[in-house]
Amino acid sequence: MKIKLKKEISKGSLLNPELYLLNKQALNKTISYAQNNRLKLSKWTNNQIEGIVNIKQGQSLITTIPYTSGWKAFSDGKPVKIVKALNRFIALDLPKGKHKVTLKHTMPGLKLGIIVSFIGLIALVFEYLIIKKSLFK
């Protein structure tokens, strides 16, 4: 098989495609293994995922959840450090054994936003009362 590539300029930069070989049989075997050893979900809400997983020696729990701020992880009720897998997904390095895993998400800045909004609302009420008092004097 021959592949001929021409360098082209697009938006001021050179396109440099990268080509890789893929062993489909090995990939299918890996996917099948991962599907048979995944987290067994017991709870899934808007901001929480919970389930049981059995970790073997040298394994990590890798999710397809993007690695973003706001996530906290717990294993058997204890906090666990979240690490980045494949440069973009949430992963947990857990010791060998069966674990109850919980992932919770809190929107970054939500608490601060609620506090600032509440202070603004109080200031608005006070301003209204002061203006009302000064108009009826």
Describe this structure in words.
- By secondary structure, the chain is of the alpha+beta class.
- It contains 2 helices and 10 strands; from the N terminus they run ββαββββββββα.
- It has helices spanning 24-36, 110-135; strands at residues 9-10, 13-14, 40-44, 48-55, 61-66, 71-75, 78-80, 82-85, 89-92, 97-105.
- The strands form 3 sheets. Strands 3-4-10-6-7 form a 5-stranded antiparallel sheet, with no helix packed on it. Strands 5-9-8 form a 3-stranded antiparallel sheet, with no helix packed on it. The chain has a two-stranded antiparallel ribbon with strand order 1-2.
- The longest helix is centred in the last third of the chain and has 26 residues, at 110-135.
- It is elongated and about 90 Å long.
Sheet/helix structural class: alpha+beta
**What proportion of the residues is helical, as a percent range?**
25-40%
The neighbouring-strand order within the major sheet is 3-4-10-6-7
Q: How many E-type strands? A: 10
Largest sheet: 5 strands, antiparallel
The number of helical segments is 2
Distance between the termini: 93 Å
Strand content: 35-45%
Low-confidence runs (pLDDT<50, min 5 residues)? none
Radius of gyration: 26 Å
Compressed to H and E, one letter per element, the order equals EEHEEEEEEEEH
Overall form: elongated
- What's the pLDDT, averaged over the residues? 86
